[in-house]
Amino acid sequence: MSRRTAGALPAGPSERPPSQSEPALPDTTASSCELASLFLCPVCFDYVLPPILQCGRGHLVCGNCRQQLTSCPICQGPLGSVRNLAMEKLANSVLFPCQYAPAGCGITLPPVEKADHEGLCEFRPYSCPCPGVSCQWQGSLEAVMPHLLQQHAYLKAIQGEKTVFLAMDINVSGAFDWAMMQSCFGFHFMVVLQKQENDNGEQQFCAIVQLIGTPQQAENFTYRLELNGHKRRLTWEATPPSIREGIVTTIMKSNCLVFDTSLAQLCAGNGNLGIIVTIAKR
Ligand SMILES: [Zn+2]
Ligand SMILES: [Zn+2]
Ligand SMILES: [Zn+2]
Ligand SMILES: [Zn+2]
């Protein structure tokens, strides 16, 4: 960004009278982009969006930076808490680029729609799909597998469409996760068994296969989980969600195989539970 407009407030949004001779034309996008640059935070270069607060001399910083500052980064004066209503009004009439524009998103939106879009933007980074560990890693889809192999090397990786996922010692107390990676059809899948308390305080198991790929790619697959006990069989078949959705959301929606501890006991041998995992193409 070459244009530093830090500290400069526009001299009030002047209402431009509609041009009389020419029809209103495409220029609007360019001017929206230029207007958006007036809202660049001088500290982080993100946008300063409503509510917009200014220092005693009229300088603006974004809400995030504001929380970490004790004085105005431009004039070193007190940050103050005076709202700039004119800038807020102006901001609401400007289209701002999505924060993932550098990653390829071409969408521009008014401030009120920006956060919602960014929460769902297909260009936003992927989070680490490894369950149970509080790994803060984020990156592109292509970088997910290298990350898993380097940082979560303990995860077992199995090749093949049909495998047995063996969860050892399922009677372990408290919440616990078992995970492995399965690779077939040129894709990688994350197989997870999670033991946790449900809303009624009862221990339950959730088993799921997620595609390390986009939601669209996930539509091309189905997976089947099979629990076998003495003369019993429980089968679950579904489309694997993409890791985009996140394991917490997926389990919250019960979009997985859910079973209780007594069923797990019926199918386990020596406290270990084998789940037959079959992945197929649609
Ligand atoms: Zn900032
Ligand atoms: Zn200032
Ligand atoms: Zn976007
Ligand atoms: Zn990770």
TrEMBL record:
For the biological process aspect of GO, one term held by this record is: protein ubiquitination
| Reaction(s) the record says it catalyses | S-ubiquitinyl-[E2 ubiquitin-conjugating enzyme]-L-cysteine + [acceptor protein]-L-lysine = [E2 ubiquitin-conjugating enzyme]-L-cysteine + N(6)-ubiquitinyl-[acceptor protein]-L-lysine
Enzyme Commission no? 2.3.2.27
State the pathway, as annotated in the record.
Protein modification; protein ubiquitination
All copies of the SIAH-type domain together span: 93-153
Q: State the Gene3D superfamilies in the record.
A: Apoptosis, Tumor Necrosis Factor Receptor Associated Protein 2, Chain A, Zinc/RING finger domain, C3HC4 (zinc finger)
* Molecular function GO terms recorded: ubiquitin conjugating enzyme binding; ubiquitin protein ligase activity; zinc ion binding
Q: Which domain of life is it from?
A: Eukaryota
Annotated SUPFAM superfamilies: RING/U-box, TRAF domain-like
GO cellular component: a single term: cytoplasm
Q: Which UniProt keywords apply?
A: Metal-binding, Transferase, Ubl conjugation pathway, Zinc, Zinc-finger
Q: Which InterPro entries match?
A: 7-in-absentia-prot_TRAF-dom (IPR018121), SINA-like_animal (IPR004162), Sina-like_RING (IPR049548), TRAF-like (IPR008974), Znf_RING (IPR001841), Znf_RING/FYVE/PHD (IPR013083), Znf_SIAH (IPR013010)
Where are the stretches annotated Disordered?
Answer: 1-27
Q: Domain named RING-type: which ranges?
A: 41-76
Polar residues bias located where? 17-27
Domains: entry comment: The SBD domain (substrate-binding domain) mediates the interaction with substrate proteins. It is related to the TRAF family.
Q: What does this chain do? A: E3 ubiquitin-protein ligase that mediates ubiquitination and subsequent proteasomal degradation of target proteins. E3 ubiquitin ligases accept ubiquitin from an E2 ubiquitin-conjugating enzyme in the form of a thioester and then directly transfers the ubiquitin to targeted substrates.
What name is this protein filed under? E3 ubiquitin-protein ligase
Species annotation: Otolemur garnettii (Small-eared galago)
